Amino acid sequence: MAIAQTVEEMEWELGGKLKRLRLNKNLDQQTLAARAGVSVRALRNLESGEGSTLKTLLSVIRALGRESWLQTVAPVPTINPATFTTRAATRLRASSPATKRSAAQRLPSAQSLTASGPTRPRKRNDERDQ
Questions:
Q1: What angle do CA 117, 122, 123 make, to 5 degrees?
Q2: Structural domain for 61, as ranges
Q3: How many CB atoms lie within 10 A of CB 29?
Q4: Could you report the per-residue pLDDT of 23-34, keeping only the tens digit for each?
Q5: Where in this chain does the record put each HTH cro/C1-type domain (predicted)?
Q6: Which residue has better confidence, 111 or 66?
């Protein structure tokens, strides 16, 4: 189970990851700051977890070639369980009560389900015993 982190701890951890990535790519702060179009001080603040702007973060991520990280922030679900039902149709918008009534009218009637003609009603258990 993951332990909840404070915002400051998350900033520090993210800054550390960015710094390790920069060092793995053998870049110094001046070079990365120039590629990202930010000041060296802004990059230093980001890497040390002292706070930064969203623009600085995105610029540095792009300069490091890690735009794919952003795809994992809030992925759009690709599987909808409703699509696996037999009568599911692609929804275009939420339905109104009038639409729900008309959908009920489109359901097959009980007579069309029994193609062999009318059937005798089943007897209840208490009628069989007599």
A1: 150
A2: 7-70
A3: 14
A4: 999 999 999 999
A5: 18-70
A6: 66
* Backbone φ/ψ region at 90: left (φ over 0), alpha (ψ -120 to 50), beta: beta
What domain count does the chain have?
Answer: 1
Closest to 30 in 3D by CA, of 21, 18, 42: 42
Q: ∠ at Cα 70 (30, 84), nearest 5°?
A: 170
The answer to the question of residue 119 being in a domain is no
pLDDT band per the 50, 70, 90 thresholds, residue 38: very high
Q: What is the C-alpha to C-alpha distance for residues 58 and 75, in angstroms, rounded to an integer?
A: 17
pLDDT digits (tens, 9 = 90+) for 79-119: 766 666 666 566 677 666 665 556 556 555 545 555 555 55
Identify the CATH number of the domain in which residue 43 sits. Answer: 1.10.260.40
Is residue 43 one of the residues assigned to a domain? yes
